[in-house]
């Protein structure tokens, strides 16, 4: 059985991107509360997801991972959670049907509340305050009071994640996600868009196929529910450590705050706390790999995080940027392949493509996002490896945060509905467009 280092030992490693809490007694109290809370997910569910990700690593399935850059506590409403789930279900159906490949569905939700930042401080009109680090840490409001890290927020995040998961479980098993509902997910603004109409046609074909399958004796219960798993960046050590528990079946530690947790680009230092903690848990895990990653870094991370070379355990989520992926990714993939390492390769086409628009909003171009995914597919095709999935920041709402796409959103549109508290997300129309384009790439792969 692998043991878990205590929190003080992890902090002694000098982890990056941690909140500076003003009151250690308050931290101890929040952590003690969290340690008494029931698991949010079960170890057996994490194992199930690991099995599905093993199929991704073997080239037999495709991962769709998506959700907000940063969830907010105020965003935990039935409508908001349903909308996110709905767009992910629509995208998954497009990918499954158009590319005839099993799709593993994972939300960036029920725990995605802590953000690494480029700068510790934020300045607005001459006033400088601590940066917002996600609702798990401090408040988004630009006041000195809101920006003080408050450890009690970790307990709020636990409760918000429990409520979110409860809704997700109800939606995915209680009939909403029934494949025979494929038409009814196509509502609101999206229905009238060209991509909504394309979806409508496909939904008609799926309905006819399901009717046919029922007629020849398929069990309709097979269409009734979908498997859906949760994920987030494991960033705040207090939260992830308190939620790491020993599984009674296997005596092994699992981080039961989410099914899949990942290490971010800014916290993947080999000898540091995030890699150390995640090396000890048995969940399926991911690591973001940006353009500064060397092939040796990737090999060393795999050796530490997946020493038994178990398929499904480790996912490399690459985020190079559209301009760098074609040159930057091949050396990593070649070396990992040559070493015989079992990893799932997934493309995050968001984080290497962020820039500030002339209007001052952080944004991304839809075309850059697509170009990075295309580059990812091209590299894997040329090396004979499997482009295992996409990891995207999206929302089920009609927001205006990324420019381009079929609606041709421009810089000038960004202010009309920019709601993200961190990075710009694809809206529902852009997300569906991405799904159709990726389905075409997959078909060719
Ligand atoms: O989501 C990712 C990071 O938190 C984000 O890209 C950092 O953004 P910043 O450069 O605004 O801090
Ligand atoms: C912080 C994120 O990404 P990265 O670590 O790749 O910058 C993120 O996924 O929101
Ligand atoms: Mn982000």
TrEMBL record:
<dbReference type="Pfam" id="PF01474">
    <property type="entry name" value="DAHP_synth_2"/>
</dbReference>
<keyword id="KW-0057">Aromatic amino acid biosynthesis</keyword>
<dbReference type="GO" id="GO:0003849">
    <property type="term" value="F:3-deoxy-7-phosphoheptulonate synthase activity"/>
</dbReference>
<keyword id="KW-0808">Transferase</keyword>
<protein>
    <recommendedName>
        <fullName>Phospho-2-dehydro-3-deoxyheptonate aldolase</fullName>
        <ecNumber>2.5.1.54</ecNumber>
    </recommendedName>
</protein>
<keyword id="KW-0028">Amino-acid biosynthesis</keyword>
<comment type="similarity">
    <text>Belongs to the class-II DAHP synthase family.</text>
</comment>
<dbReference type="InterPro" id="IPR002480">
    <property type="entry name" value="DAHP_synth_2"/>
</dbReference>
<comment type="pathway">
    <text>Metabolic intermediate biosynthesis; chorismate biosynthesis; chorismate from D-erythrose 4-phosphate and phosphoenolpyruvate: step 1/7.</text>
</comment>
<dbReference type="InterPro" id="IPR013785">
    <property type="entry name" value="Aldolase_TIM"/>
</dbReference>
């Amino acid at each position: 059985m692998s043991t878990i280092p205590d929190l003080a030992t992890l902090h002694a490693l000098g982890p990056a991107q941690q909140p500076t809490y003003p009151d250690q007694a308050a931290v101890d109290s929040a952590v003690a509360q969290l340690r008494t809370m029931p698991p949010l997910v079960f170890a057996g569910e994490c194992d199930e997801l690991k099995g599905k990700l093993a199929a991704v690593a073997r080239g037999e399935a495709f991962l769709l991972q998506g959700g907000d850059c940063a969830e907010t506590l105020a965003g935990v409403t039935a409508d908001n959670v349903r909308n996110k789930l709905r767009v992910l279900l629509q995208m998954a159906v497009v990918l499954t049907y158009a590319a005839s490949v099993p799709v593993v569905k994972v939300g960036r939700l029920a725990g995605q509340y802590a953000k690494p930042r480029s700068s510790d401080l934020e300045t607005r009109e001459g006033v400088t305050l601590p940066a917002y680090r996600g609702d798990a840490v401090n408040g988004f409001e630009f006041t000195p009071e809101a920006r003080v890290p408050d450890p009690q927020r970790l307990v709020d995040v636990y409760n918000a994640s429990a409520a979110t998961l409860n809704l997700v479980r109800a939606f995915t098993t209680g009939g909403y996600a029934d494949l025979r509902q494929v038409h009814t997910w196509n509502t609101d603004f999206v229905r009238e868009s060209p991509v909504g109409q394309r979806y409508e046609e496909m939904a008609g074909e799926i309905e006819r196929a399901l009717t046919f399958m029922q007629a020849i004796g398929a069990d309709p219960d097979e269409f009734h529910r979908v498997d859906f798993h949760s994920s987030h960046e494991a960033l705040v050590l207090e939260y992830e450590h308190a939620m790491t528990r020993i599984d009674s079946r296997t005596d092994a530690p699992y981080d039961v705050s989410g099914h899949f947790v990942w290490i971010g680009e800014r916290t993947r230092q080999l000898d540091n706390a995030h890699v150390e903690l995640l090396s000890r848990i048995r969940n399926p895990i991911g690591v973001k790999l940006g353009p500064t990653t060397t092939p040796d870094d990737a090999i060393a991370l795999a050796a530490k995080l997946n020493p038994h070379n178990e398929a499904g355990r480790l996912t490399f989520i690459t985020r190079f940027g559209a301009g760098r992926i074609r040159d930057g990714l091949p050396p990593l993939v070649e070396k990992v392949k040559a070493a015989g390492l079992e990893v799932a390769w997934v493309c995050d086409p968001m984080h290497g493509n962020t820039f500030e628009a002339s209007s001052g909003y952080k944004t991304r171009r839809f075309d850059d996002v697509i170009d990075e995914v295309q580059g990812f597919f091209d590299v894997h095709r040329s090396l004979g490896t499997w482009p295992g999935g996409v990891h995207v920041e999206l929302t089920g709402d009609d927001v205006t945060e990324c420019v381009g796409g079929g609606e041709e959103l421009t810089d000038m549109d960004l202010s009309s509905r920019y709601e993200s508290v961190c990075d710009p997300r694809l809206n529902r129309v852009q997300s569906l467009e991405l799904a159709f384009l990726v389905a075409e790439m997959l078909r060719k792969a």
